[in-house]
Write a structure and sequence with these properties.
The complex is a heterodimer. Chain A is mainly α. Chain A is about 80% helix and about 0% strand. Chain A is built from 6 helices and 1 strand, in the order αααβααα. Chain A is elongated, with a radius of gyration of 33 Å. Chain B is mostly helical. Chain B has helices at about 5-10, 15-35, 40-55, 65-85, 85-95, 105-110, 115-130, 135-145, 150-160, 160-180; one strand at about 100. In chain B, helix 1 (about 5-10) packs across helix 2. The chains are: A mainly alpha, B mainly alpha. The interface of A and B includes residues 62 and 79 of A. Strand 1 (about 60) of chain A pairs antiparallel with strand 1 (about 100) of chain B, so a sheet runs across the interface.
Chain lengths: ~150, ~180
């Protein structure tokens, strides 16, 4: 069984190496001997050679030449935009937090507001904070333990 | 300018130096992405995004090592994520092919419309068959056939043994042979 597996792997290496011109002369002779004695392998060799022939006749299609003229400008614009988004996000977080904090303080200081409204506001804030912590903790756990962490989903 | 100097300057925040790196590798990056996603617009978008991410992560580059293999890791990750996205997959199915050019076949067909149609059909079937390959096989096939890398270079780029390169290539070609079937 092990011998069979080894020989399968060896045959695969010989076939691929021959198609891609990466075989030594000895290995090439080894493949030719195998092909001469194995009709099924010969069939496979023909099919694989046909695939190689078709692949070699194809090229990746070239884009219009103008693509390259504007390429760096597009990358640069994206870089600028990403910096702008970071700044806007920071500003939004700071301003919303500041406004929210003052809003809550005002609400809690309002003596005319019923106690259950104040309690609901507090419960909402605590709930949101718990959700935030839970999401962040889950993300950290996934990034540490996920074997596919390099692949962003 | 030497690549190492450009990388060091880019690391210091010099966008002009980074622009020169982009100029050097934009074609290779684009074609790598095209081979993996099979659409001009997506390849352009993903390769440009890869450069943006490369600039953001520039502090992690080792200036003493070649820039492209590092960039390629970003490109392939972005491309694989893109292909895995179910919405993208649906869009891909609806999209027309045309990311391969059958230059040799077109030359051979000359002015024979029948032969030309046959070659166009072959190209379409071939594109579809490559699109059906598992991503690891497709990647190795693209690097070998369209980028023209040696087994050793592919193994280094993907950090896998040469035997794995050959077995992935074998599996890819076997699938393609089955898909092409009776095409002559």
């Amino acid at each position: 069984m092990n011998g069979d597996r080894y020989s399968e792997e060896r045959v695969r290496e010989l076939l691929m190496g021959a198609l891609d011109g990466e075989l030594t002369q000895e290995a090439r002779a080894e493949l030719e001997r195998l092909l001469a004695s194995e009709p099924l392998l010969q069939e496979e060799w023909k099919r694989l050679s046909r695939v190689k022939e078709v692949t070699e006749s194809m090229k990746l299609r070239k884009p219009p030449e103008e693509t390259w003229d504007g390429y760096w400008n597009s990358v640069y614009s994206r870089l600028e935009r990403s910096i702008a988004w970071i700044l806007v996000s920071i500003a939004a977080i700071v301003l919303i937090s500041y406004g929210g904090w003052h809003g809550v303080q005002d609400l809690l200081a309002d003596a005319e507001l019923p106690w259950y409204i104040k309690g609901s506001v507090l419960a909402g804030i605590v709930g949101l904070a718990m959700l935030l912590v839970s999401v962040v903790r889950h993300r950290i756990f996934v990034s540490r333990s996920d074997p596919y962490k390099d692949i962003q989903r | 300018m030497v690549e190492q100097v450009l990388v060091e300057r880019a690391q210091a925040g010099d966008t002009e130096a980074f622009g020169e790196l982009v100029g050097r590798y934009m074609r290779r990056g684009y074609f790598a992405a095209l081979g993996l996603v099979g659409s001009h617009e997506d390849a352009l978008d993903l390769s440009q995004e890869a450069f943006v991410r490369a600039f953001r992560a520039r502090s992690t580059i080792d200036p003493g090592r070649p820039f492209y293999p590092w960039l390629y890791q970003i490109i392939r990750r972005l491309c694989f994520n893109f292909v895995r996205d179910t919405r993208t997959r649906r869009r891909k199915l609806e999209a027309a092919g045309g990311w391969l050019a059958d230059e040799v076949g077109n030359r051979a067909a000359g002015t024979n419309p029948e032969r030309e149609a046959e070659r166009a059909e072959l190209r379409e079937r071939f594109e579809a068959a490559i699109g059906e390959l598992p991503e690891a096989q497709r990647e190795v096939l693209v690097l070998k056939e369209f980028e023209g890398l040696k087994y050793r270079e592919i193994a280094e780029l993907l950090d896998i043994p040469i035997g794995t390169v050959m077995s992935r290539l074998y599996a890819a070609r076997k699938s393609l042979a089955a898909s092409l079937g009776d095409v002559s």
